[in-house]
Design brief:
It is a single chain. By secondary structure, the chain is mostly helical. The chain has one domain. It has six helices and no strands. The protein has helices at residues 2-33, 37-70, 79-84, 86-118, 121-125, 130-164. The radius of gyration is 19 Å and the shape is elongated. The two termini are 23 Å apart. 17% of the residues are buried. The mean pLDDT is 93. It binds protoporphyrin IX containing FE (HEM). Residues 10-11, 14, 17-18, 62-63, 66-67, 69-70, 74, 91, 94-95, 98, 153, 156-157, 160-161, 163-164 line the site of protoporphyrin IX containing FE (HEM).
Length: 167
């Protein structure tokens, strides 16, 4: 019963984290980018704040629940199993990919998004000026960083399905 509740919570929080980032990257942020710059600023600060307020604790819980589900309540009960079986290796890859994805979001994407908010509006709005070009370059960089984060999520998701089939 406890395994059932744990997996229920793990999957619910996992889809909340992965789904939240997917929705932000492919719906919310592209929609906000169509607004005039002043309005983008007004929306992006609370959006960043509310997103990290939710996604930070959710992602920590997903990782902890996943670890407990696979070890105490799962088959990964020795180092030999961890590095000597397909399931163990998939578990290890999932753990490392999730921690990397978490750190990437927290220490690379969040600061890059905050840097966008810090660009002086007057300079950004002078089209063709150095400020506008630097802003456009930062937007492009942020998109690239977000795509790399998605790659992390797809690796994790694949590992979850593989483990379901004992691999
Ligand atoms: C973004 C992060 C994560 C998401 C979205 C996620 C999602 C899921 C989903 C949907 C399942 C159910 C799979 C199925 O029954 O078909 C699952 C199961 C599981 N997850 Fe995760 N997970 C994440 C991170 C982790 C981490 C970091 C670990 C631990 C290293 C982990 C360990 C497990 C284990 C052991 C299972 C049970 C696999 C089995 O059936 O034997 N997960 N996860």
């Amino acid at each position: 019963m406890i395994v059932l509740v744990m997996q229920w919570l793990h999957v619910l929080l996992g889809i909340c984290w992965f789904g939240g980032v997917l929705y932000l990257d492919f719906v919310v942020i592209p929609a906000v980018m169509t607004l005039p710059l002043e309005q983008q600023r007004a929306v992006s600060k609370p959006l960043t704040l509310f997103s990290s307020r939710l996604l930070f604790p959710v992602s920590i819980l997903v990782i902890l629940l996943g670890l407990v589900r696979g070890t105490i309540f799962g088959p990964v009960q020795s180092w030999d199993f961890l590095i000597g079986t397909t399931y163990g290796l998939t578990f290890l890859v999932a753990f490392m990919a999730t921690v990397a994805t978490f750190l990437w979001g927290h220490f690379v994407i969040d600061p890059a998004a905050r840097r966008l908010d810090a660009f002086p509006l007057e300079e950004v709005m002078q089209s063709g000026g150095a400020g506008a070009l630097a802003f456009a370059a930062q937007v492009k960089r942020l998109k690239m960083l977000a795509i790399l984060q998605m790659l992390g999520f797809f690796i994790i998701f694949t590992c979850m399905i593989l483990m379901r089939f004992g691999l």
